[in-house]
Write a structure and sequence with these properties.
ArsR-like_HTH, WH_DNA-bd_sf, Transcriptional regulator, DNA-binding transcription factor activity
Length: about 120
């Protein structure tokens, strides 16, 4: 499925990144305010390196951008990628609504057939 500029690999990376609770929490935190990787690491009972790996997965999915500021690496949200992900979910919702309407139509035709 291609939505906007997303190809299959982009979609896989986005859903892989969002499939993990820690990564979703990191994303939520950086949506509220950009944070350094060190600041993010203080919120989780795991090593700094593990948090860095989670941030790297989010970065590969283009959901966040990491930039060096002095001695720190600051993570902030990439709104464009989030919008593309929202478009993808909207496309899935449209497919689901189309199928629901088709099922309603089939059921209505069956009811009409039973009454005649």
């Amino acid at each position: 499925m291609v939505v906007g500029e997303l190809d299959e690999a982009d979609v896989d990376r986005i859903f892989h990144a969002l499939a993990d609770a820690t990564r979703r929490d990191i994303l939520t935190r950086v949506i509220r305010a950009e944070q350094s990787v060190s600041a993010l690491a203080r919120h989780y009972p795991m090593s700094f390196a593990a948090v860095q790996k989670h941030v790297a997965v989010l970065e590969r999915a283009a959901l966040v951008v990491k930039e060096r500021r002095g001695r720190e690496q600051v993570v902030h949200i990439d709104v464009t990628a989030l919008r593309r992900a929202a478009e993808l979910l909207d496309a899935y919702e449209q497919l689901w609504r189309h199928r629901a309407r088709a099922m309603e139509q089939i059921l209505a035709e069956d009811r009409e057939g039973e009454q005649s």
